[in-house]
Design brief:
Helix content of chain A: 10-25%
Number of strands of chain A: 10
Oligomer: homodimer
Largest interface: A-B, 45 and 45 residues
Number of helices of chain A: 5
Radius of gyration of chain A: 19 Å
Shape of chain A: elongated
DNA sequence: TCAATAGTGTCTGTTAGACATTATGGA
DNA sequence: TCCATAATGTCTAACAGACACTATTGA
């Protein structure tokens, strides 16, 4: 947001950084130095010689949560909805940050769980909702759940992440069977003991090429 | 593309109109009056007081194929890739036109099957690929197949459309069972006789609310 | 009549979900 | 020891895919 004092940009890049906090998704917001709302989704104008994804990466890094583990464009937003930059349109990106990443210091940035998000400019509210919808919808095409976890994780943590994203409980044995069939993870020889109970083996994300065989067409999900 | 003579726009709206021709997808291109490529994806600058989707609808109508039966944003494209308008970015939309819609006359617009698409400006090539990928990926969330068919269709036509979009053969009995379970279509009392063979009953798209029950998580599709 | 296509019934191998059981640590 | 959690084996109902069959038209 370094260009806020320069002329009004025609297009901004807005970055919705998401992580998991407890059993909820959380978004990184930035304290607004001016304007009607107190918090904003981080944004900036695109710089010369910079790709849009490059801008998004830079904005994410400036939020001092490091480079996001995953980044993808959500789309273009505008249509007269108000934005902190008063730009005509905004190109929104969604980024994932592994849970447990140290919170940014200084109080300029802060994580808000989705149920606690303060009022935002209308366009940024749409952008946030669009980013969350996209993340939830991309789960079965991209390793979204894995990008929200640390590099090593227990299968219970992975299942809880899927439950968080899907918004429903999953069956443990079925989940693990599906995981085995999909060749997505490999066990490490480390274990983690969490309070009482048997320690859990740690796994890492290691997708393998598979036969493209799969059963069925799923028309179920279609009626929306 | 009425604004081509005005100042270079910072942002264009590009519209990828798709239909089915035989057993292939086809895209509507416009003859280019100038520039390196002979054909372009229809585009124009956004007009004042117009939403982006409004612009896309207008551009589609100008291509004289009527209002598309379905329209959705693909995303923003730019990143220095060349575009007929030399604009910084383009917001791309994908639209579906029912197959059998009379071809636009005059020779300015023409349908090209995906395997016969001529050379396009690099950004427009990316836009086209992105639109096709999005359509194929949205099949199970939007009634994409139905928007490519006339309002009334036979189940064989519907199955062929799914096969076209999925790029693989489907099993007839299973397809119909899945269709019945999904409550997506309802029979009309009309029949259509096509050459020899028993006439087929015509159906229409009529989604019904269903129980949210469905089996399984499909991690299969995940390994990319 | 034959050929061609529409539409349906039945069987079978696979698998999601349920349940039970074992394994292994902490209190 | 008891309890809590991890991990796995077994059973069953549901379903995808295969096959066969009937139905109905045109040639």
């Amino acid at each position: 947001m370094a260009d806020r004092k320069t002329r009004r940009p025609s297009c901004t890049i807005d970055v919705v950084l998401l992580t998991a906090v407890g059993s909820q998704l959380a978004v990184l917001l930035c304290r607004a130095p001016e304007g009607r709302e107190k918090w904003i989704v981080p944004w900036d104008a695109q710089r010369p010689q910079e790709t849009m994804e490059g801008s998004a990466t830079r904005i994410a890094k400036a939020a001092s949560v490091g480079e996001p583990a995953w980044l993808e464009q959500v789309g273009a937003f505008g249509d007269g909805k108000r934005h902190p930059a008063e730009s005509e349109i905004s190109v929104a990106y969604a980024g994932l940050v592994p849970m447990g990443t140290p919170s940014p210091v200084g109080g300029v940035y802060a994580w808000f769980t989705l149920s606690d998000v303060p009022q935002l400019a209308p366009r940024q509210r749409l952008i946030l909702d669009g980013a969350v919808t996209m993340i939830r919808g991309r789960m079965d095409q991209s390793p979204v759940a894995f990008r929200l976890l640390q590099q090593m994780f227990t299968l219970t943590e992975l299942q809880q992440m899927y439950e968080l994203l899907l918004g429903k409980r999953l069956h443990k044995a079925s989940f693990r069977r599906a995981l085995q069939a999909a060749w997505l993870v490999e066990p490490t020889d480390e274990w983690r003991s969490e309070g009482r109970g048997r320690p859990a083996q740690l796994y890492r994300y290691a997708p393998r090429k598979r036969r493209p065989a799969q059963r069925g067409i799923r028309l179920d999900l279609l009626s929306s």
